[in-house]
Amino acid sequence: MSALASAGGTSFAVAENVFINPGTTPGPAAVVEVLHPGRDGHLFVGRASEVEGLLRLLAPSSDTTKPVVVSAMAGMGGVGKTALAVHTAMLAAERGWCPGGVLLVDLHGYDAAPVRPAQVYASMLRVLGMPDERIPDTVDEQAGEYHRWLDRLADRGRPVLLVLDNVAEAAQVRDLLPRHRKHRALVTTRDHLFDTAAVRRLSLDVLTEAEAADLLIRTLRAADPADPRPGAEPEVVGHLVRLCGLLPLAVEIAAAILTDEPTTGIATLAAQFADGEARVSGLRHGARNVGFVIDVSYRRLAERDPGAAALLPLLTLDPGPDLATETAAALAGVSTAAAATLLRTLRAGSLLRHTADGRWQLHDLVAFYARRHLAADVATAAMSRLVRYYLWSADAADAHLHVLRGQFLPDRFAGRAQALAWFDAERANITALVALTHRTGRYRETCRLAMLIAEYLRGRRHFTDWITVAEHAAAAATALGNPQRIGAVLNRLGFALCAVRRFDEAIAAHERARALYREFKDRHGEAQAANGLGLALSEVKRFREAVTAHRLARAIFRASGDRHGEAMAWNNLGIALCELKRFGRAIIAHRRARDLHAIIGDGRGEALACNGLGHALRKLGRAADAIDAHERACDLFREFDDPFREAQAWSSLGRALDDVRRFDDAVTAHRWALAIFREFGDRPSETATSHDLGSALRAAGRFEEAIAEHRTDIEFCRTAGDRVGEGSAWNRLGLAQSALKQFGEARGAHERAREILREAGDHHGEGAALNNLGIALRELGRFDEAAAAHRKALEIFREFGPRPGEGVVWNNLGIVLAAGGRTGEAMAAHQRALDLCSRAGDHQGRGMALIQLGHALSKTGRPADAFHRFTEAAAVFAEAGDEATAEEIRQGIPQVLGDGYAP
What we know:
12 strands; Rossmann fold; Arc Repressor Mutant, subunit A; 903 residues; two-stranded antiparallel sheet; six-stranded mixed β-sheet; mainly alpha; disordered N terminus; 40 helices
């Protein structure tokens, strides 16, 4: 993007004064300036794409059927229109595209006395080469001769480029535009002057932050190459240019002030501009004044369209970054159609931006200026309309997020997708409005808005916003002094805190809510608080207390006839029971939840119950049934547009598919989940799913893909500062390398994993890395070191508590001992593994221990005992749904015990 500046001032800058109706005052004499290639000593920054686009239009080869190509560059005052036009024109001249000359005429359209076409013809003819004695006396004759002279220049191969600057009305330039197609013209204006079909239009925006900072620094250095401030205060340069709204004129004025005051620091000036009102009035230097630039546009608008001018200050009441046409209608108290007309008028006057997604946005400096014209009584009434509009719309949108099948819905939105889209667009505005209503004492509205947006924020994973609105609501409810309202918002706050893993605070919020409900004998509220409390307790592994809380909630909901609440309590109870390894009871709870949700038509609740049911079924080794449950959950979450929970269901489905050795299908499921988690930026879920994906690729025999996935995972975790995730990824990388018999590389990966996880304090992760290191060392024939690694892993588990994989470590230790000829110790290790895996419900670990015991028994001359162990192992895998492994074991028995062996 661009700006034109120099240490000695801007050659083409014009002091902008209050607008007076054109024609009431004689205009100034027209000054036509010839722009010569290479004579521009001014600073031009950025605007690369705009320059490129304009050059394409100015090129002699430009394909156009119009006699003249005009680019009307509409933008607010000070955005750099003149700078861009002049810079591009000189580039065109350097390329030899306009041998007839590049002419700049400032038409002063926004000054007190604009230049009219009649004042331009004689000067243009003179500059174009017509002798003074041939210039006609009357304006009409001059106009005719002007166009004939341009036509003759075109016919002689000498096209001209005109830069018609600061044009306020189409009438100022319509008769000046060349009529021959070889000529080119650039028009700069703050307004939309022409029919779009008649011109090529470029609407200029502010600079990027990097370009604005570059403009500030280069302007200071142009004045004094030794200026130490940019180097000494680089961190505040961005802050200052943001305060300038990235507007080139404002940045240049700030640079001019700093140049005049070499002892004033950049941070000092930024502090002076911290207040918006002070900023608008303080951004002035000599004749250059941001406030005057905006004032000219506003006063001009007020004369032409008072209604649009009256709307501008009202728009500043919406606290969000942009707003919809419907919001503007609510502020003004008019219809949407009427508001759209007023908004377009503001945009045409370059006082308002129309964003790419169809919303409206005020520049910060325009907003600060506009607030000066906001009367207190008008503001109060408009704010009330604004709050009512958001409450009405949010209530209707939230209804779509909770609707049950067959339930009546307001007709504000056509469906759930439209309601979500509205929340997506208005999230920042509602979040800011919650804070504003709290700050201004509208406490009931604060609480209501916070409650209405909560489910949306949860579903879209906007947890920071959720915490913010919940805390404002809690403070507002406390100010109202209503215990039930306080309990409700505390309960919502607890859910939000739980979502960001602030579990102790979540527990405290739910306990406080439950105590309030109990004190005022609100049993239904008590049940809601108990249900939330149970979820928070489960997160800190206080599962028995969680079961008690959910049972209390279930009983109260059932007694009050709240089947939806009862269903949720059943589902949450199932989750806690599953963690306590009471899988049978968990299955009963999840099925009860599923059936209740289905009866009342709550598809999302049914999906949650199906996913929980799948977890419990998988824990019992019923992988096929678990797959059915998870697939149902995926379908329902997709139907009800809950992508994050759909990703969770896909991830669960992938693990169940792993259990039945459908590894390629598992890879597909994990990739679906990973793509969704990445869209949400949920790093913990993304990391866990990436681990699962790599494991599934490894199990599918796609080892190179697995290695690539694990390396990507390592880099992701390292960038995110996730040391535990990084260590786990190194561990999985080592497993994939072992599968390719790259045991040396695997050993290095597992050692790296152990080091990282030990430093991160993940003791169980360190134990897993040691176990896998032992496997790699065993394959390298270093049995003593392998046994030492496995024993160290077991020491960690004894010190910090067992984990489900402890039996696997005992099994691997037994294999190492057997390889070293220590068969008796090996059998003891395998028996220990069998006992641990049986108690933990680890069917795969139990089956592997039985296989290794069979091998050990066969080596000690006990074939009958070995046979029974092998057949028992086959039965375990078959029961778990892994018939392929079971059959592989049966087929392998003769190879171990000899053909024809029968007990």
